[in-house]
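Changelog-adjacent note: as of this version, every example in the card shows the full chain rather than a window. The one below runs 111 residues end to end.
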Amino acid sequence: MTPRAKLLFFRLMAFVVGIGLLLLVAHMVLRYGFGNHALAWWPSPHGWVYMVYLVATALLGFQLRWGLGKMVGVMLAGCVPFLSFWVEHRVAREAAAQIEGDGAGAGRVAA
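Full-length structure tokens:
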């Protein structure tokens, strides 16, 4: 898998997890606030989607030689509503620059 493909996979999964987390919050509000079980099917698939997001983050992080702290931080961003969108945007911009060779430092990747 090329670095660009890993970045695309990460971006897609970050978006899906962000939307999924908003659905999970809606489920919790509906269920515990109003006794409505309309989204009762969502928590289990959301867990699987989040696991795929963790894999996407690890693939990109190892490719770009991120430290463990940065990888874990990006992974945890998928647990906070709306934060995953902001982190995805920032990380994608930095990763694209690094992949293109515009980034500085030891984490530079040869294409």
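Structural remarks: Residues 3-100 form one domain.
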